Amino acid sequence: MNNYSFDAEKSKISGIFKNVKTFLLDFDGTLMNKEIYVEMYPHIVNALEKKYGDKVKEAIIELKAKTGEVDTYELCAKLNDLNLYYSILPTFIGKSKLLDGTVDLLKKLNTAGKRVLLITNSHRRTIDLYLVKHDLGKYFDFVWANEDSDFSKSDENYWAELTMATNIIKEESIVISDDLERDVIPARNFGMKALHLGTDIISLKEILQ
After folding, report:
1. Strand 193-196 relative to strand 173-177: parallel, antiparallel, unpaired?
2. Residue extents of the structural domains in the chain
3. CA quadruple 107, 12, 176, 90: dihedral positive or negative?
4. pLDDT tens per residue, range 76-131
5. What CATH number belongs to 13-33+98-208?
6. Residue 17's CB: how many other CB atoms inside 10 A?
7. Region label for 8, one of left (φ > 0), alpha (ψ between -120 and 50) or beta (otherwise)
8. Is this model's pTM higher than 0.85 or not?
9. pLDDT tens digits for 23-79?
């Protein structure tokens, strides 16, 4: 097991990119500001409660007991009403904002001839809406969405399945994500380089330097 570590304070950021041919980028919180989900949550819950009453509270309790959190997509799915979710989501996607440096980074990687993969827990229908809204699809060689794996990102099988499906070499790849526990550490343990947005780097702009 490779417990790769990187100290951004003692090493130049550029050094970690040596021999890297493939960049695997998380989406929510890494490329896009995810605050819209906080704003959207009460709208989803209120709309569900108008249709399903106390069943919504029961579903929320069950989801919290299972995962410790409540994802609005999963809540709607549990109540068999994804149509409601996708009737509300586009309004908030319309207000969503990319994090500083996102487009510049993607352009730089494309110009340098790097493979760029989007790896996200979002469902494909959801991520497709974002890619269209922000005109990002053209920058990615591959999009790996929630439906593409039966494993969570914290499972080594997720990364094994991903590398096999996309024909990437893990030793020549780097993961960039704001999620240390579910993305960065598992990727490092699998043998990939990985940067945590928040501690290793504070902004995507650092990669552009």
Report:
1. parallel
2. 13-33+98-208, 35-93
3. negative
4. 999 999 999 999 999 999 999 999 999 999 999 999 999 999 999 999 999 999 99
5. 3.40.50.1000
6. 16
7. alpha
8. yes
9. 999 999 999 999 999 999 999 999 999 999 999 999 999 999 988 889 999 999 999
